[in-house]
Amino acid sequence: MSQRTSYTQGTPCWVDLMTTDPEAAKSFYGQLFGWTYDDVPMPQGPAYSMATKDGVAAAITAQPPEMAAEGVPPLWNTYLAVDDVDEVAARVEPAGGKLLVAPFDVMDAGRMAVVTDSTGAVVGLWQARRHLGAARVNEPGTMCWNQLLTDNEYAAVAFYQRVLGLTTSTMEIGGAPHTVFVSGRDPVAGISAAPPGVPHHWHVYFAVEDASAAAQHATELGGTVLGGPMDISIGIRVTLRDPQGGVFGIFTPKGPKP
Asked: What CATH number labels 12-128?
């Protein structure tokens, strides 16, 4: 489904980029994905630039000063939809995670918290009010998949089941079994091993018409190809780094176009 009007609990519903140079990042992603921006003033801190592509797709904002001072690289954050963020956040630490930012209201847009799961991956929890999250998904220039990269799949599965009620199933991708999180009956995210030296984290993929061509375009814009293009039987994926250092993926599914 391309247009979203709701998200079930545990489904990735939003991504945003915290970066050292928001204007440069907006230019890069705008040219790569065709995004335009609506800069939303925030009561405290920098503007939150809502990226649109036939509907709100993602956001870009400046890193908090403390992150920049610590040399934390730009990063894409994933947010999981929740029905009641206070209730869900209360289950995080008993399940082995940590509550980094306690639930708080984001004006009238929604209510959120930031946590680490039991394997150390940071993830946001989002209870929607006026802002649902991504209004468009699975179309070129929009979020199409989110993947938890961790070396402890067993612990991760137990955490997300206890905290969010997610179950799992197994899909064959590229000739190998692949664990996916399931909300209700729908696969909503994946789990795979973190590459050596890469911290556990949630990784976002954006859909593109032609992953190889988009990767070439990204390099012309100052980005770097970190992996791929790789044929994984269901499509072609590429891992990229933007000019400021933010890592993300692009994906072109196989099969007939809708």
From this structure: 3.10.180.10
